Each structure stands twice: as C-alpha cells, then as structure tokens.
Amino acid sequence: MSDLTLNTKPARRLTRKSVANNLFSWALVLPAILFLAVFTFYPLVNLIQLSLYRGNITNPYKTFRGIENYIDILVKRPQFMTTLKNTALYVVMYVPICLSLSLIFSVWLQKARKMNNFAQTCFFAPHLVATISSAFMWSWIFSPESSGIANGLIRLFGFNTHNWLGSSATAMVCVMIMNTWASIGHHALIFLSALKSIPGEVYEAAELDSSSSIKTFFKITLPMLSPQIFLMLITMTTNSFKIFESVRQMTGGGPGISTKTVCMFIYDNAFETNNTLGLAGAASIVLTIILMLITLLDFKGLEKKVHYQ
Amino acid sequence: MQQLQLKRRFVNYLPNLFSDLLKIACVLVFIFPFYWMIITSFKTYGEAIQVPPTLWPKNFTLEAYHNIFSMSISFWQYAQNSIIVTAGVIILQCLIMIPAAYAFAKRQFVGKGIAWAVVISALMIPGTCTYVPIYMVMAKAGLIPSLWPQIIPHGCNVFGIFMLRQAFKQVPDELLESARLDSATEAQIVLRIMLPMAKAALITICLFSFIGTWNSYFWPLVMTNNDKYRPLTMYIERVQDADVGNKWNQVMAANVLLVGPVLLIYLFASQKIIRAFTYNGVK
To answer: Which of A35, A138, A277 is nearest residue B33 as measured by Cβ atoms?
Structure first.
C-alpha cells in the first residue's frame, strides 16, 4: 500500500529502539510458539521415542525394543492390519457417498429461496450436535430389539428384526449412515458458498447454447467447483481415517474386531492393555505416515484434474 | 386483476412444487432422529421399549428426567465442568492468538519468516496421536485430577491465528501510524483499533472453539479418570450403566440435556451461525 513501515527495519543498525521492537514482537509470538512446541511438536518426537520401547503409561521406557514394535504390528500380530483394513473400508465407503450427496444437495439448494434456506438450516443442525450424542441417537434407532425404529420399520414390511450394530455386514454401514447424516449439512454449506462465486454469465451462456441441466452440472458446475471438491476430498479422507468416538460408542469394535478402527487400536493399546504402550506409539507413527501419504498422493494425483480460474 | 396475479404466481411456482415436496421429505428424514430423541425422553421406560414403537407418547411423563436428577451422579457437576472448560479454552486461545496474529500481521521482526513457518507446519500435524505423550506430561505434572488437562493443550489455535492474521492485515496501516503519532500504546492499538475491525473473524473463531470444546468427548475421555472433572458429554454414559443396561428413555433425556442448549441457540441464531461457518475470511 504505502511506503510507510511501522517499525524500524530489523537491525541494519542495532539501535536500542530496533532491539526493543524486535524483542517485543517476539514476546507477542512466543506464547503461541511455546504452546505449539510443547503440545504439537514434542508429542510427535516423544511418540517416536515411545514406539521404540516396551512399557506402559507409568513406566514407558521399560525395555528397549528397537523396531520390533513396528514388525509386531505390521507383520506378526494381525490385529493392527485388521483395524487398518476396517478403517480403509470405512473411508472408501464414506467419502464417495458423503461427497456426492453433499454436492447434489448443494446444487439442489442453490437458489436463494425461503424453502432452500429453511432446508439448509435443517440439514446443518446435526453438525452442531456432539458426535457422542449422535452416536447415542442412532444406537437407539438401530437398536436390535423391536423397539428400535429401524427394526420397527422393517417389521412393518414383514421382515424379521435385524441386529444392525451387531452383525458384521451392517455394523459399519450404520456408522457410516450416522456420520453422513451428521456432516452432509456442513459440506453442502461449504459447496454452496463456493457455488455462489461462480459468475452467473457462465450459466447464461450455457443456457443460450441450450445445454441440459445435467450436462451443465457435469461440464460447468463440477469443473468450476473442482478446487473446493479437491480440498474437501483430502479433508474428508484424513478426517474419516481418524474415526473413533462414533464407532466405539455404536459398536465397540463390532462383532469381534470387525469394526475396530486404527484409533481404537491406538487407544486400547495405550490405556487398556498392559505393556503395550510401544505398540500404540508405533501404530500412531504409522497412522501419521499414512495420513501424510494420502495428502501427498491426493495432491499429486488430482492436481492435474483441478481447474483453476 | 388480483386473481390474475395470484394465478400467475401459482403458475410460476408450479415447477418448483415437486422439488419442494421432496425437500420437505428430506428435511423430515433429517430431523427425525432429533424428534425421536425428544419423544423418547418423555416416555415411560415401559413405553420406550414397547413393540411396536409409538410415534407419540401415550403417557407424557417426566419420569426419565426425574430419575436422572435424583441419581447419585450430579448432573450439575458435569455441566459446571463443561462450562468452565469451554470458557477457559476460549479465553486462553484469545490470550495467545490475538498478540501472535497482530505480530504476524502488522509488525516486522527478525526471524518472522521462521516463526511463521513453525506455526504453519503445526497445521499439518494430525492431532489424533499426540494425546498419549500429552497425557503422560500432564500425569507427571500432577494435573490429571483437575480441569487443566482439558484446557491447556488447546491453548494455541493455529487456525485462529491464521484467520485473525488475515483479518488484521486488512486494517489500513495509516490508522496504526496515526494512532502511534497520538502516542497510543501497542495494547491500546490492538484493543481499540484492530479487534473491533476484526470482529467477524473473531466471533467465527470463538464460535468454532465453543462448539468444538462443548462437544468434545474424546479429549476428556483420555484426560480424566474421575467423575469430578468430567464434562457433560461424558454424562450420558454414566446414566447408562446405573441400571438394566440401557434405559433408553433416561439415556435420551440426558442426551436432550446435552444437545438442548446448542439446538436452542441454533434455533434463534441460525442465520448468523451459518454465515460464520461459511465465512471465508474476505469481507
């Protein structure tokens, strides 16, 4: 904007004023950096340390094991790989469905009408509610006895009651339904505000060229939304990989461990079982690497398909 | 003339009719879990587990709420904890975030780039796994029997610093220059000039923090081992294991108590809240 700088330029001459200014600025920034150092960076380093030992919470460094923990969870004991498979299945189910539904909803509710505003408000409400509450609500709906509304409905059609959350075929699907219900409104809202930034002339031009609404959607709306879709894809994938609360409450790991997720594995090995803190540490590091890989792959792979203005 | 206008408005609306009916149907499906939760909390236990389930309580009763409040576990203790933790987190975050955002936005200093890189890189570290070492640090510091472990680790809100810095950057430098000429202290500059102009961003950030902290279940689960320090989100399962497994009407009543305040606020301020969530940082 202007040539005015607010402070003296950093130390060409070490005047008292410039030193004081610099120190003051650092004093403003230091609390944030300290907090980050203690609660974000240090834990990561500590995790690597923990994963190299065998111990528990009160005595974390009992015996040194090197990379044995990693070999344990990746090769020897099958539990971690099972949880990884479960989590991956969930992500592959959840992300495409939630993403496409949010897109459809956002295009459907695009015009600024009273009905659309009302619908947006209602669809967004589940997002504000605690995940644990939604888990309880849907556990009640999917209750295995006939008093659960899901069973009540299928009984109306003459089928037998089904143990939704207790059978390996449907348990994960129910968790996915709950999470979709909870987050569709939020994602649709984000897409909606992105849709508003598409200039109206583009649509007018498409109408002039007599393009059907489906064609418009695929050839114009989607490409113009692609930056947001792309970002949303990454966020959704990494977030759904970390699923914990809802699964733990609704199925507790499912029949056996068929719905146990990676975060549940980490938690159980850190707090519930004895002498397995090292395994939890190793699993955490593996999870972090996987998340970083996903983000990197998404960036590389989809960058070409994203259309920037 | 008026009849013609009415007819025209109706004809103009007709294409939307089917779509609108579908929207109403979707809305009903979406709202149904809430409705079901509230209804169940007002039923007797017998009616709650009755087959087939009733859509409207035959005997409207406050039995579930009465049972909850007369239990030995104190509802108010949990509610108090929730309030204190949420308020604490918001205050702590503001204290840390505002000076940092101001410095990054408006002040030049040696090593500014490095400091900023440090802050940004923290955004990329997923927080899921960091809780184990943090728990051990808190345990070693003897803070576990208290509310501090739920407040302190969330002290630095990087997303908030980001947004606030962007908002601060939009304040014209000339304002600050003239304030300094009028010999204003830095604190006065921040409080009297920067903050009022960044009000929208600040409210958005605080709203996010409020909702995130009020609804958090996982963090208190890890950081507490005594009912005295647990927040409201952990209250529902306490109601659960008192009796015959799941007394659904009581569980739903506890749920209503947790979810009610948020939904009520949302009812009255929905447009503002939605606008805050879609705020993209540019005026």
So the answer is: A138
- Would you say residue B39 lies in a domain? no
Residues 6+ away with beta carbon under 8 Å from A78: none
pTM above 0.90, yes or no: no
Q: Which of residues 66-105 of B touch A (CB under 8 A)?
A: 95-97, 99-100, 102-104
ipTM score of complex: 0.85
Would you call B148 an interface residue with chain A, using a CB distance cutoff of 8 Å?
A: no
Instruction: Work out whether the CA dihedral B33, B39, B44, B50 comes out positive or negative.
Output: negative
Tell whether A145 and A267 lie within a shared domain.
Answer: yes
Q: Is residue A228 part of a domain?
A: yes
**Distances in whole angstroms, Cα of residue B24 to Cα of each of A22, A138, B56, B193, B268:** 59, 21, 20, 46, 21
- CA–CA separation, B217 vs B206, rounded Å? 19
Same domain, A30 and A84: no
Residue A100's domain comprises 68-303
The answer to whether the Cβ–Cβ distance between A152 and B133 falls below 8 Å is: no
| pLDDT, tens digit only, all 309 positions of chain A | 556 666 655 556 778 888 888 889 999 999 999 999 999 999 989 988 888 888 887 777 878 888 888 888 888 888 899 999 999 999 999 999 999 999 999 988 888 888 888 999 999 999 999 999 999 999 888 888 777 888 888 888 888 878 888 888 888 999 999 999 999 989 998 888 888 888 888 888 887 887 777 787 888 888 888 888 888 888 899 889 999 999 998 888 888 888 899 999 999 988 888 888 888 889 999 998 998 888 888 777 766 666 665
Residue A56 in any domain: the answer is no
